[in-house]
Write a structure and sequence with these properties.
about 280 residues; mainly alpha; about 55% helix
């Protein structure tokens, strides 16, 4: 499908994201699980450095949960990339990043949702939460450790995922991980990836989705995500799916808001699927 037709489709009301995308979006079903992000001092860019590094700019950017940050990101992307700007203009609904669940709960949910269709994953997740008196607010490491693998299998959690959940909770219990530690590291993508991938079942892609949708970091580029790669391929008219290096090169102009650019790549692919479905009817 041509980019022109795709942009036309983006103007129509969008359907809910498919499972490959919505399964990674970290959302909260209960206000009781909300956490307060400790305010941080925003580092001012030194006037002595006329060319600050992208990492420095990204670290100085407030989280995407701030509407003003999203507005700034959209203006930057529209100016820096004309093709992406056309996609942004054609899409009537701007991105919203409102998840306020604790890091532990978000990572737990990510493990349960892995490789499952959204409806099935939500059903299992709801059963999982029902095991804890008090709902999501009671999903804490010591409680997860206390639930046997057999009981988790009874509600539809695979034996492998049960071991992943226990490993995550165990690392919290031992002090190897904590919500405070993760929040302190939220600007350090490499460090956070190294720390969180030590948990069984959590890979680089899961950490990057966690950083975008739970920590709301503005400059994360998931170079291995199939949806983002397909979006970049179609946006720039490439013959083949771009590899990690080409992704980095093509999306360099999106810094320091590559998370938002990636969000629009998912929307671009969704619109194509919607258009193809309507044409086939």
């Amino acid at each position: 499908m041509s980019l022109r037709k795709t942009l036309t489709a983006l103007n129509r009301p969008s359907s809910p994201p498919d499972s490959s995308i919505s399964a990674v979006k970290i959302e909260s079903a209960s206000s009781s699980s909300k956490i307060t992000f400790r305010p941080r001092k925003i580092r001012k860019l030194s006037s002595d450095d006329p060319n600050p590094s992208p990492a420095t700019i990204a670290a100085a950017s407030p989280p995407l949960s701030s509407k003003s940050t999203v507005d700034v990101a959209l203006r930057h992307l529209q100016i820096s990339d004309e093709l992406l700007g056309a996609v942004i203009s054609a899409h009537s609904t701007p991105p919203v990043f409102e998840s306020v669940t604790t890091p532990f709960l978000s990572l737990t949910r990510s493990i349960i949702y892995q490789q499952l269709a959204t409806k099935a994953a939500k059903c299992i997740y709801d059963r999982f939460v029902s095991l804890f008196p008090g709902g999501e607010s009671a999903v804490v490491p010591e409680s997860v450790v206390s639930i046997s693998a057999a009981d988790l299998r009874k509600i539809g959690v695979s034996g492998r995922k049960a071991s992943y959940l226990h490993d995550l909770a165990g690392k919290y219990e031992s002090g190897a991980l904590s919500d405070e530690m993760i929040l302190e590291m939220r600007d350090d993508e490499e460090g956070l990836i190294e720390r969180l991938t030590s948990v069984k079942g959590i890979g680089v892609w899961t950490v990057q989705m966690f950083m975008i949708f739970s920590l709301h970091r503005p400059d994360v580029l998931p170079v291995g995500d199939l949806g983002v790669r397909k979006g970049v391929k179609d946006l720039y008219g490439l013959k083949n799916l771009p590899g990690p290096l080409q992704m980095e090169q093509l999306c360099e102009k999106w810094r320091p808001y590559r998370s938002v650019g990636s969000w629009y790549m998912w929307r671009l692919i969704e619109s194509q699927k919607t258009s193809k479905t309507k044409l086939s009817k």
